[in-house]
Amino acid sequence: MTITVNELQEIFKGQFEYKLLEELAQTGQHKTVPAGAYLIRPGEYIRSVPIIIHGSVKIMRPDQEGREALLYYLGGLDACAMSLTCCLGSRRSEITAVAEEETELVSIPVDKVDEWMCRYSTWKQFVFQTYQKRFDNLLATIDEVTFHKLDERLLTYLQKKTQSCQCRELTITHEEIANELATSREVISRLLKQLEKMKKLKLLRGKIEMMTV
Fold first, then answer.
1. Does domain 30-145 have CATH number 2.60.120.10?
2. 97 and which of 40, 106, 112, 145 could share a cystine (Cβ 3.0–4.6 Å)?
3. pTM of the complete model
């Protein structure tokens, strides 16, 4: 699906120069992907880099046993730093990217990522800002793992998900949470009950309602 320069101007609001928007309209692919759709899988070569317009995508890293730990979320006008790194180095993906909800994005061919770095200062700035943002996310994750208890990490994780979807009610299983936090379902269930007693959240059938966002 194509996208016009005028639509891109409205989306990026002066972030990129007009000539770059023209190229983005010519070469970018405008997509809407359903919730649960995979954008990137481990081992695949990166053929394009997505820039999220609306929606949410979670980036996870699997281990050798098939478990996946959550790294960060992508939201509006975010790009995946791991995808940028892999495409610039012609490396296979080491992460999984899955749409958390129906997500609108513009997909950019990998050959344009490097080319635009040399030709457009605004694109170079966007790429560097993407790296910095993801680096900050990863530092925050390391801090949570190193300095915070699992109940604090769980609450932070749930708050981030509600902020990402801009909602108070999450449709997610205890098993899914356990997988993303690299722990067991039993531990997560026990901690969720503790947080419910503290009136931080309410456990519903197949859902979690946050009392504070």
1. yes
2. 40
3. 0.71
